[in-house]
User: Fold this.
Amino acid sequence: MDTSEEKVQQVAFLPWAGLEEEISIGPVTLAPYQKLRQSDNSPAHCEFYNWLDKFFRMFKDDSNRPVDTITVCYKDDLDFKPKNAQEMELLAQCANAYYFSAVFGDLVFFHPPENAQKFELFTHDFKPEDRILSRPLFWPKRPMCRKNWHETVPGILEVFDSFFRGASPQDRNRLMRSIQWFWLVHVRRDYFSESQKIVMMTTAFEILLDFPEDGKSKYFSGQLNKLIATDKFKKEKREVNGTEIESSAIACWGYDFYQLRNDIVHGTELIGDDLVYLDEDYDGRDDDDHPKNRPEITHLMVADAVFCELVYWQLHKEGYWSRTTRELSDIFNKAGANSTRVSAESLLFDDYHGQLDWIIKKYKPENS
Assistant:
């Protein structure tokens, strides 16, 4: 005999994400609610959908109209059964991968990313006979920062699909825990200050790159040298433990960023300028195509771009990201991700390296 507990159903969903087509990430499916409802012919689910139709009407846009952005998340086959903690963690990881894929193209061009709360995963337990409370939940209905962002997401999600299917649980959890911290950084809530977000971002780097217990600043700069820097990167100098050390520009930024994190956690009071990497009057590329007086670039904006590049190279190294950076550049060109377009001959990440004045102008390899 069924008990009351056995009759409880559960739905996991993203209220505001606005996915247009069904996608798969490993064993997890993300599907637009209305299309899922139309295609699911299971008689057992009919009463569930009737209840959910009413429940999802609580989610309103700023015109007090029900949103059409509901995305349902489920593992394997849709059954509306309550999930255990492990299954919920997997669904959350896939939701975070969806967010990362959506903002990747914005962040490597220093465009403002979408609010991470639009990709927040909710769950709700229900019984079809339950009464629905009419308490609306509002979110302004507005487009993503990039009009054609849906064109770039599938290509990146293909990578995460391969990764979820092929990676070991340990490797998957390490990468996805780092992306979870990355997601938290971009949740625009008043109680997360810029300083707090810097600490959270260093946590994302620590998990992604498997930091040791000691010597973290040195380790971080060394990993940036190893994984990203090439011969075309400029050299800079920093004083480390009383000794002047020369390294690549990106490695020096990494050392500075982690020192900034240390200052924050040890209580140093920072002013606004301390959080800025390049102010609005600086432009390392002194030519007509790149005028001065551009918007300032903060350390956190640099960290976003570097994190995206590190994730790219981590996945590329393991064979999950088969697309080259040139192919990726073409994807973002088609979607209008960059206001100046990335040429087919350039590499995607060279654009932000150049904006930060990290690479040598008109660099020529030594053997050319």
Remarks:
- Confidence is low (pLDDT under 50) at residues 143-149, 282-291, 335-346.
- DSSP finds eleven helices and eleven strands in the chain.
- The first strand starts at residue 9 and ends at 14.
